[in-house]
Structures are given as C-alpha cells and as structure tokens.
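Exercise 7. Given the encoded structure of a 409-residue chain, write a plausible sequence.
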C-alpha cells in the first residue's frame, strides 16, 4: 500500500493530460482545492482571483481545472479479484461558489461514471456523457432561514460569455445552471445559509449541499473610517494590513489597484494608468475570535521592498517610456476577497491522512449529499480612494529600485 492519491489533471494552458501521484500534503494549497474542483465556471462565480501558485489572470480568471480523484483505485493489497471497470454507475458532480456581490449565480452540475467499454478520453468528448438531459433534473437555490426557493435555468455558458476552452472535455455546449435575482429582495444575503437542491426526475434522492455566505468585511489598517485612508511604505518596519470578518470567511486575497497619471515637467497631461498588485494570497484569518459580524481578524505585513519591486516590474523608467515625464499617484483601491470554510474542511481532511499514521484509503472531502464536488461562498470588500503618504513618495525618489520611475508628491 502507498499513502498516495492519483489525480487526473487537465490544464487549459497546455491542453494536456497529466497523471500525478501525490500525497495530500504535497499538493500546493490552492491546487489542492481550486484546481481540483472547478471546470470553466464563469468569472463572476469564482471565489478568489489571482491565487499563487495557479498564476491566474487577476482581472479575468479563466484558467480553471477539473480533477477526477481515483483514490478508490488504490493498490489494495492487491487482490486478483479487484474489478477495475465496475458496472456503470452515475455519480453526480456539483460545484458552485455563491457571492452576495454577484448579480447572477451559476452552478456546474454534471455526472461522472466509469464505462467498462470506452476509454475516459472518448467519453470526455461526448457532451451527453457529461451532462444530465434537460428534463432529468430541476435545480434550485433555497434560502434556508425562510424556505424560499429560486429555480435555476439551464444556460449555455458559451452564449453567456463564458466560453469553455477546447481540450480534453467536450466544450459545446457548456451547460450551467443560472439564477438571476429579479429584484433586491431576491438577492443573496450576507451571513445567510443557502442550500442547493437538485431534484431528479427518476425518483432518486435529491442532491443537496449547504453553505453560509460570509458577512461583510471591515478594514482596520488602513482604517476605512479615515478620510482618505492612508497607506505608508518606507524604510524600517513593514506595513500592516488588517481586517475583521465573521466566522464564515476563512481564506483571503488582497489586490491593490494603483492609479497614477503621467504629465510633462511643464504640467501637460499625458496619460492615466491603473496597475493591479496582488498584495497577498491564501492568507488564513485567526482561528479564534469573539463571534459576531466582525469577531475574527486577519493581518499581513508587507515590506516596502515588496511594493517597490512590484512598481519596478510594471512601470518603465520615466526617461525610457515617457520622455522624462513626472508621475503622480492618484486614488488607490484595495480589494479584499474572502472565501468560505469548506476549503478548510477539505484541507483538514487531506492533512489528517498524511504520513506514517495516515489512512490507506484517502477520503475525498465533499459537501454534496449524493455525489462529489463542493458548494461554498465568498464575499468582497473594496476600500476606495486610499492615498499614499508623502513619506512613501519621498522614500522612492532616491531608492535604487524605483527612483528612475520619477514619482513626485
């Protein structure tokens, strides 16, 4: 026996199939979840953008992945009677990320099975093998506290603007289930628990999953109360970013949108630009808290050199790009995104089975009642109009990394 799990991983960048055999603790943090669980879900439905090590495009995250765990096919003592191609059995596979900030919500609901007569590669190219027939299922989102149910409609993601890349899996059609609230009362609410319900026409048990959406986040450092919020980078101590949240948000990303203008030394406007900086990724909040809407905290320290290196990598020296222009920082926006606790449960399940005391058969975490996959939530808070302190710009003028960028107060 080997304490390992086999993964079939399809990467859209390379359109190739890779077989990896990795113990759970060797799977990179968000490869082990986000690369595993999502296949061409729309950008608006995604939990977090820009996570390393996925090298995802920050503003339009489309490099998504689908994984089929083969833990059941472990090297089982290895009996000669082990049946590799068991009789056909349909397995529901459901994925979704719900956010109160989205104007439309999407779920991917497919089916997986092992066919003893056909190869996986052949089956993957047959759309009817991946999706349920139109009348086979009805899909609902239910607000648990009130019992309100909202029926989701089947849509082709390709026609919604979410084109599924070609490759191992059939890409036409790209069936998703969509719910678009008709009014503000039907919008998904922060802090509320929602249930996915898939009703099967053949009388089999409903497929269900629940998740509680994270509540609002609060910026503590920089303070969202201060007008304008101030950011400072410079020699000495690092800059601390701190926020508060409820228990339903666990992992966080922060993106800084740095806006600046270029003008001639004489004051003539040249251009205005915005560049995104992924300040941190995969940051877990504190495990303990006082409860309530802002009872948990998270914090990250970022050095001035990290900020300088970002600027130098994304802005050319002034004498090379704009004829010795002057540059001035304008508004700075901070985008904080936090995802639900289901990913933590997944990681706990994986890590509990590593090493010499681990189980021989590795469990796969899922919160789908009758199949595989995961339903989770996310939320987002944006702090707009932040300003860099004058000391920040002053420290840049003589710094070897960013001095030639020619930023002025």
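Solution.
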């Amino acid at each position: 026996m080997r304490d390992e799990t086999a993964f079939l991983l399809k990467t859209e960048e390379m359109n190739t199939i890779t077989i990896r055999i990795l113990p759970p603790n060797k799977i990179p943090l968000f490869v082990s979840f986000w690369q595993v669980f999502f296949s061409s879900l729309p950008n608006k439905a995604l939990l977090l953008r820009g996570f390393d090590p996925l090298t995802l495009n920050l503003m339009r995250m489309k490099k998504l992945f689908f994984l089929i765990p083969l833990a059941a096919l472990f090297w089982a003592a290895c009996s000669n009677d082990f049946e590799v191609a068991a009789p056909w059995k349909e397995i529901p596979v459901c994925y979704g990320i719900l956010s109160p900030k989205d104007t439309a919500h999407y779920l991917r609901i497919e089916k997986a099975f092992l066919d003893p007569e056909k190869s996986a590669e052949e089956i993957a190219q047959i759309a009817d093998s991946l999706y349920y027939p139109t009348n086979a299922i009805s899909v609902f989102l239910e607000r648990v506290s009130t019992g309100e149910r909202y029926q989701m409609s089947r849509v082709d993601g390709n026609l919604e603007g979410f084109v599924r890349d070609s490759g191992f899996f059939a890409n036409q059609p790209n069936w998703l289930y969509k719910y678009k609230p008709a009014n503000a009362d039907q919008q998904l609410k922060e802090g509320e628990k929602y249930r996915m319900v898939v009703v099967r026409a053949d009388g089999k048990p409903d497929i269900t999953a629940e998740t509680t959406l994270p509540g609002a986040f609060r910026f503590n450092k920089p303070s969202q109360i201060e007008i304008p919020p101030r950011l400072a980078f410079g020699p000495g101590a690092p800059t601390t970013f701190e926020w508060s949240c409820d228990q339903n948000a666990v992992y966080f990303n922060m993106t800084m949108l740095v806006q600046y203008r270029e003008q001639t030394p004489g004051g003539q406007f040249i251009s205005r630009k915005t560049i995104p900086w992924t300040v941190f990724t995969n940051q877990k909040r504190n495990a303990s808290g006082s409860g309530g809407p802002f009872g948990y905290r998270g914090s990250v320290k970022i050095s001035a050199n990290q900020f300088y290196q970002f600027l130098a990598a994304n802005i050319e020296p002034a004498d090379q790009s704009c004829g010795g222009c002057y540059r001035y920082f304008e508004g700075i926006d901070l985008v904080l995104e936090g995802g639900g606790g289901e990913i933590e449960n997944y990681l706990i399940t994986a890590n509990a089975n590593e090493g010499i005391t681990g189980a021989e058969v590795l469990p796969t975490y899922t919160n789908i009642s009758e199949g595989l996959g995961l339903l989770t939530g996310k939320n987002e808070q944006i702090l707009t109009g932040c300003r860099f302190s004058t000391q920040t710009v002053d420290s840049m003028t003589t710094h070897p990394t960013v001095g030639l960028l020619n930023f002025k107060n």
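Remark. The mean pLDDT is 78. Students should compare their own answers with the one above.
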